[in-house]
Amino acid sequence: MATEKEGGLEIAADKYRSFLHDEAQNTEWRHGGPPIFDTEWAKGSVEEVVQNAIKSWEMELSHKTRIQDFRTINPDKFKLIVNGREALSAEETVSLGSYNSVLKSSMPDEFKYYKAHEETFDSADDAFRTALPRGFPCEVVAVYSGPPVITFKFRHWGYFEGPFKGHAPTGEMVQLFGVVILKVDELMRAEEVEIYYDPAELFAPLLKAPLISGPNTEQQQQGTASSTSLKNALSRTRSYTSSPEQITTFSMTILVHVLE
Hints:
Layout: E1 3-6, E2 9-12, H1 46-63, E3 79-82, E4 88-89, H2 90-103, H3 121-131, E5 138-145, E6 149-159, E7 173-184, E8 190-197, H4 200-207, H5 218-240, H6 244-257
Parallel strand pairs: 3-8
Antiparallel strand pairs: 1-2, 3-4, 5-6, 6-7, 7-8
């Protein structure tokens, strides 16, 4: 990236904001200085190492088809565990794809608002690429322990700018947070990945908008079923609870486990 000199400091030019550093010494900034839009983890820090490893693993999982071509995992020991479910092997994870591996569920169909067993790698990829056309990147928010057992908090985020399962886009940001326990070998290859997150953070904003008007398509039918599942889950909380606090706790418990 091109740089420019200013008061003895070297500042990276911003190709999207041409006046960001214009006459910076004479500008009064709301927060004491110009905003920084390219913040990164310190080079060589454990946070940078973890983030690079996660991004590389996601790239391989999304774009490589043969286990022997993966460099980020130990294929003989690798297993993926999501929200305490039964572990998936390397072969199963690659076959299902990143979305279906994480969204796979053993719940009854009536409680599912995403049926991973009915999706293929391509159909799942198309559904989320359509809904989140600018991507759904992952960033490491905090690292709590370093290798060989790495524990970190992550954030996925994107903008809901395309239809999802028949539901109209809202243009709003969709984000979810989670925690990962990652066991690696001496080559920093993943041997065991445990992911814990709340799927309701992802699906609540994707399903809250009304169905798109028009012919009754299969996607719209799936969207209707998804909305019904959410309503059923919430309505059952009223049958088993008596106070607002209990309803809130029980509702979140059901939503967290819908995809388990």
